[in-house]
Amino acid sequence: MRESLAENRKWDVVARDLLATQGAIKKDGRANFGIFFDGEPNEYAEAAMRLFLGTNLACAQCHDDPYVDQYKRESYWALAAFFGRIAMWDGNLVAAERFTERFPEIGRSAQSISTLPGGDAAIDGARGENRALADLDEGEVEMPDPGNPRTMIPTPLGGQPIANADEGVKTRRELFADWVTGPQRHNLARAAVNRYFLELTGRGFVDRPDGFAPNKTVRHGTLLDRLATEFVKHQFDIKWLIRTIVLSKAFQLQSAEDHGASETWHAAVHRTLNSDQWCNSVLRVTGREDAIYGLGGQLRKLLKEEIFQRVQQRRKLLAEGAENLRAGPFPHLADRLPPAPEPVTGPSPAITDPERAQLSELRQKYVAVGQGLGKQRSRARAAMSSTSESLMKMNGPLVAESLSQGTRVAEIEALDSPKARIRLAFLSVLARPPRVEETQRLLPWANNDATLQVSDLLWALMQTSEFQSM
Amino acid sequence: MPLVLGLADSLGSKDDGFMMRCNYQHHSSGTTPHTILTRRGVLKASFGTVLGTLLGPTLPSVFASGTSRPVGNDKSVIFLWLDGGPFQHESFDPKESGDEDLAYRLKSISTTADGIQFSESMPWLAEQAHKMAVIRSMQGIEMEHNQAQYHMQTGWRSIGAIQAPAIGSIVSHELGPLPMFRAQADGLPAFISIGHAGYSAGHFGAAHKPTIVWDPSQPPENLGLPKGVSPEVLDQRLKLLEMIEAGRTLDATDRYFREGRDGARRFMQSRQRAAFDLTNETDKVRQEYGHARIGQGCLLARRLVESGVRFVQVCHDNMDQHRDHYPGHVELLNQLDQGMARLIADLDDRGMLEETVVVAAGEFGRTPTFNGNAGRDHWVDGYSVAIAGGGFAQGVTYGSTGPRGGVAENPVTIPDFMATLCTAIGIDPDKEYHDQFNRPIKLVDDGTIVREVLA
């Protein structure tokens, strides 16, 4: 996904990637999406509908949706039928059993899997990351009705069953991808526009990325349709979409203290930071991030040497391994070894002994900082949305250590006037200068109270809801 | 004054602990002043100085006014969460077999309950079996940890559309703090989780997520001020914050943070926080509970329930051992045995067992057969849950498994178990609430109450 976004892969192409790719995830990460559902066709279908068309059909797994005529149980399982012909290999016992149950004639050996379409990839997967996905020519989805299980024919939502689904050269998953990126492309675009709008501004045309349903009102529907049409015209260019949203007035509005804002969009709405955003923000505003990265920069020489050595060693091991295999009873396996990494050009950097001792010490420090932060991050994730969250934000080590180890406190202390200090503190933490009345409120206190510490002011600013939300 | 909730460093060696286990038998036969009053008894008693000395720093303020009237019931739950899945046939549902692939190595021992045997890994619980109800025929569905834990904790299978609340959040939401502590402004949270972040609170929201105590030997994380920050400094900082935010009209986000901060402040200043300080217990008691997290967690759980916490979850070290079952897994069972047995005895001595349910359960059991790594894998068809106190039957087992595992009679599903537990603590499992989409959802997904294990 990261690569797709970096190369600005078009959204409809990403959809097809995630919906139809076969192979081993080590070779092709796009196949991972299908593997995630553990071979449950209905879960795959449900996720595809939520992710790409913004509709949540989960209720219809067990019962007809009482509010939406279109969401019948039967439609749900007919969608699942698009995803019923998948062979999944993840090397573990449970998956292997499920695999064998579904395809008894294939059995569990890697050899027989290679006879499947995409089977080569499956074998690689079993050896490497242990995970692979292949489309098959057979396998049906039954609607689990006790006493009356019915084989479902793949049917797009609100469409006709694809009777000849199995005759063409396309896999069932490819047929689904065709439907999503073809007849449904306007809805694909609507769901994407809503998702990005929600992510970027905190509110959407519907309240959730999967909040579209025939019975739900869409806010500013004309605008949504207009944006969706333009998005399709721009060939599902995500960068265009993001650019359009961030250049809009809606995105650039100041927040206001008004509940109506989430309906009328006349002002930005507050969202609280998630734990990672909060951690990163604390590191950034206290200037601790700079301190940590500075430490990492000093280690560059040592790391370069290590990479050099590691690559050399890997090349040596692979060459030896290939030689041994060729001499043994299965010489053809030598060709199946993974490719050796490219040699690192240039000599290994020279490091003197005293320098090395100093760098190792620095490295230990760096690793310790990283481990400490890692623990604090995971604790922060666990603590979010509970009493523990407030305790962590007031008394926790991340705030305390960042105040004492970051560079910001010293930078602010170096300023002469209290007014300048207050200004830089606001700029550092809230990314805006203090308002006149804020300075006025704080100044007398700052002038008269000798015990005022810059760290206290930064602490207080970091407790504001302005800092903790965006 | 900064909070001082430190811990004496040394607890002695493991061997000392084992010796202490022998001593504790003598201890539990004696009578201590604690055995005189139950919580309910306390409520009924007159307000003499003896109460002050007995309850010490945890004396609830409602007593001082003399106006308390209990609302709701007095039941608490201590849920020993056996994360990863314990092996049923070497704990509460012992089996012996000559079949080599089964590889049961432990013997069965008789217990204080007629006709009930435990594994020899549970010598201390064998002494408490006459107070316990054991379900031996739990039948799960989910084979993988995440899904199985969600199922066991919420009573619902994990489906995307519903975020069901975990049992601790259900109890916190339905019952709140214990009645005699409810009127206190500085009471402890209703749901505390020891050694684990807890699971979903679902629709009940942040207020019913657990407050986390990572290490029972330490106070809750960040309850004390960081080094170099005095209470005066904190006051100053809060005053600054107030000045910065003055004149702001509060929106929902502001209120969320403000209420969170106020709650944290109350918690920091609560007189009940002394309950977290295990150094208030003698070394002897601490050793009797066992050094392991589960043991010290059991002791802390007892103290918390005494101080008004409604639901305490204590998480054992991860039991998910897929390789080298012996001796590691048995050691974990030993630790559970020591802590849980001492907890049951202690609650009983204090007259609290009747009002406190102690449950030991994991998300599933382990395979009767060995895998290729001399370990045991996940097993959902016939595992055990052990319960004591709080309106459960005493000295009974329910359901059974065959000689090679597998439920033989009276299968109990996870919703059945949840419905039974809810009923025992006075919560209607069929109660409906409305989730964020206004869908009516029952607390428990259609469980049948297992009357046989209820008193």
Provide an overview of this structure.
The complex is a heterodimer of chains A (about 475) and B (about 450). With about 475 residues, chain A is mainly α. Chain A folds into four domains: about 10-140 and about 165-175, no CATH class; about 185-260, no CATH class; about 275-385, no CATH class; about 405-470, no CATH class. Chain A contains 25 helices and five strands. Chain A has a three-stranded antiparallel beta sheet. In chain A, strands 4-5 form a two-stranded antiparallel sheet. In chain A, a hairpin with a 6-residue loop joins β4 (about 140-145) and β5 (about 150). In chain A, α4 packs across α5 and α10 crosses α11. Chain B has helices at about 15-30, 40-45, 50-55, 60-65, 125, 145-155, 165-175, 180, 230-245, 250-270, 285-290, 295-305, 330-350, 415-425, and strands spanning about 75-80, 110, 115-120, 130-140, 190-195, 210-215, 310-315, 355-360, 365, 380, 380-390, 395-400, 400, 405-410, 410-415, 430-435, 440. In chain B, β2 and β3 (about 115-120) form a beta hairpin. Chain B has about 450 residues and is α/β, with parallel strands linked by helices. Chains A and B meet through α4, α18, α19, α20 and α23 of A and α9 and α10 of B.
Summarize the structure.
The complex is a heterodimer of chains A (470) and B (455). With 470 residues, chain A is mostly helical.
Q: What's the quaternary structure here?
A: heterodimer
Strand order of the largest sheet of chain A: 1-3-2
Low-confidence segments of chain B, given as residue ranges, are: 1-71
Gyration radius of chain B, to the nearest Å?
Answer: 22 Å
Count of individual domains of chain A: 4
N-to-C span of chain B: 48 Å
Helical content band of chain B: 25-40%
The unreliable regions of chain A are 105-112, 123-129
Shape of chain B: globular
Indicate the structural class of chain B: alpha/beta
- The overall pLDDT average of chain B reads 82
